[in-house]
UniProtKB/TrEMBL annotation:
InterPro entries: Bact_solute-bd_prot1, SBP. Keywords: Cell membrane, Lipoprotein, Membrane, Palmitate, Signal. This is Extracellular solute-binding protein. The lineage of its organism: Bacteria, Bacillati, Bacillota, Bacilli, Bacillales. The keyword tRNA processing does not apply.
């Protein structure tokens, strides 16, 4: 067995981890099968031991998923899973690594960059460069077609420590990831009340007042505008673009001159907060929006109580019907219109790691490489075909060797995906659409809305890229953000309800400086400059 980690950073241990797997005498990694020059399927089946996370909607045993059953048949490799959900996974994952009871690999690992680099420093995970170059032709083909991802995968020390998830759906401004929090407005109510679609912030306020006064949901159930504050796609920050730079989930934007800025320190941000307070004072905002969770948000949306709400896809909240439509960006008081781009893209750096306990590196690398086969990657991401026990997301066209999306028939896309897909490392490039697979109907529809409604009003030419900062930079960023971001989020919610943004603004900026905001900007700017030079 390779060297097991001698020391592990305290951040991985976690105060909540008291006991757990440490009493288990069975080895948590596989024996050395002494296999080389491997080709699949193997003549004799062997097993590997993986730790993973999956959705509560998915089978408790990942091997009950048809995708994994097919993989086992095609490779001759049986996977022994330790599978957890939610917060339990993070605790068990960290405990396994800190106690030395490592699996061969961790699928859907979910490590931050800081955690990856600490694990690498402690030799708990291994560099993957040679494995990729020697044993992974599918992944190599992806990186040859889209070489930008190799740079994103590579740590500052030149090593690759994790296998990524890559999902391309449009490029540049037209990427499906450019805006998370689409604003969905109740056009059924607009028509019933004889109202026009709002085009300015003031018109929106008037529409929401009409919703409040006429109570189209009945029995006082109408909620003019709902959201989940500081919650990505459900946050009302889309409206902030009418007042300046706007806002996004990580509070970071890049100007067209290449300057990194914190949205929450912009003068326009203050004006947007004042507008939100106006809506609050008129009883137009869902008071639960400052604390509700996703199930509560969905439940009220399915009851048809919202005049306006925010989310990625209305199908998950109010259904794929004609009652709600996408509201275009609004002109602010001075006529300013801007759609703030998120810094999102279909790339996750740490979907799978191989631990230093693994004694079957060629076997593991070649198994993982199967996940990067184009047909396989598509299924990993969305689900599979030919499952007689439940709804399928695809049919497989044998003659064209192509996966074709089936109608969802009212099923929420996120629900079907979580039941049947496996996540993990994969790659879906834009070139696959029309050759390997069709675009999902919901994605094609959303891309069309993006191009038609949002892209014409996106002023920013740049986003903040997936910078792989050094351990030292990440240490400072995480330390600063531990105080900075909660403060920003707290004041954001407070000001919307108490209306004190104007009188507290100067003191707020002073506090940002005290919380090392300027150092945060310098580190982020240095990372941006390196990544774009």
């Amino acid at each position: 067995m390779k060297k097991i980690v001698k020391t592990v950073s305290a951040m991985l241990i976690g105060t909540s981890l008291l006991v757990a797997c440490s009493g288990n005498s069975e080895k948590t990694w596989s024996e050395d099968y002494e296999l080389s020059d491997i080709s699949f399927p193997l003549e004799e089946e062997v097993s590997l031991k993986f730790l993973t996370e999956s959705s509560p909607l998915a089978p408790e045993d990942p091997n009950d998923k048809l995708i994994f059953q097919r993989l086992e048949e095609e490779t001759g490799v049986h996977i022994e899973w330790r599978n957890f959900t939610g917060a339990q996974f993070g605790e068990r994952r960290n405990l396994a690594m800190s106690s030395g009871e490592m699996p061969d690999a961790i699928l859907n690992a979910g490590y931050s960059d800081y955690e990856l680099l600490n694990l690498a420093k402690d030799e708990a995970i291994i560099p993957l460069n040679d494995l990729i170059d020697n044993y992974m032709p599918n992944l190599q083909a992806v990186l040859e077609e889209a070489p930008q991802y190799r740079a994103m995968m590579t740590a500052p020390d030149g090593n690759i420590y994790a296998f990524p998830w890559i999902e391309e759906l449009g490029e540049g401004k037209e990427s499906i990831h450019s805006v998370d929090n689409f604003p969905w407005i109740n056009v059924k109510w607009l028509n019933e009340l004889g109202l026009e679609m709002p085009t300015t912030t003031e018109e929106l306020k008037e529409v929401l007042i009409a919703f409040r006064d006429h109570d189209p949901a009945g029995d006082g159930q109408t909620i003019p505008m709902s959201f989940i504050i500081n919650d990505g796609g459900q946050d009302p920050g889309f409206l902030f673009g009418s007042f300046g730079l706007g806002d996004n989930w990580d509070r970071t934007v890049v100007t067209n001159d290449g300057e990194v800025k914190l949205t929450a320190a912009d003068e326009g941000y203050k004006d947007a907060i004042k507008f939100m307070n106006e809506l609050y004072e008129e009883d137009l905002l869902d008071i639960e929006g400052f604390e509700q969770d996703w199930p509560r948000y969905v439940a009220k949306g399915q009851e048809g109580r919202y005049g306006l709400y925010f989310t990625w896809d209305k199908g998950n909240i109010s259904g794929m019907n004609d009652d709600y439509d996408l509201m275009a960006p609004l002109a602010g008081p001075d006529g300013h219109i801007n759609v703030t781009r998120t810094n999102g893209m279909g790339f996750d750096r740490s979907r799978m790691v191989i631990t230093s306990a693994n004694q079957n590196l060629e076997l593991t690398a070649k198994w993982i490489d199967q996940l990067y086969d184009p047909i396989q990657s598509v299924q990993n991401n969305w689900g599979t075909y030919g499952d007689d026990s439940q709804q399928n997301i695809f049919e497989f066209d044998e003659s064209a060797q192509m996966l074709k999306h089936l109608p969802l028939d009212g099923t929420a896309p996120v629900e079907l995906r979580e039941r049947t897909s496996i996540g993990g490392p994969l790659a879906i490039l834009d070139s696959y659409y029309g050759t390997v697979t069709t675009k999902p109907d919901d994605a094609a529809w959303r891309l069309g809305l993006m191009e038609e409604v949002m892209v014409p009003h996106m002023q920013a030419e740049n986003i903040y890229p997936r910078v792989f900062h050094s351990r030292e930079e990440l240490d400072r960023l995480s330390t600063i953000e531990a105080d900075l971001m909660p403060f920003v989020n707290r004041k954001r919610a407070e000001w919307i309800t108490n209306g004190k943004v104007e009188e507290e603004w100067e003191g707020y900026l002073v506090e940002l400086d005290r919380l090392n905001f300027q150092e945060w900007l310098e580190i982020k700017q240095a990372g941006y400059d390196r990544a774009t030079e």
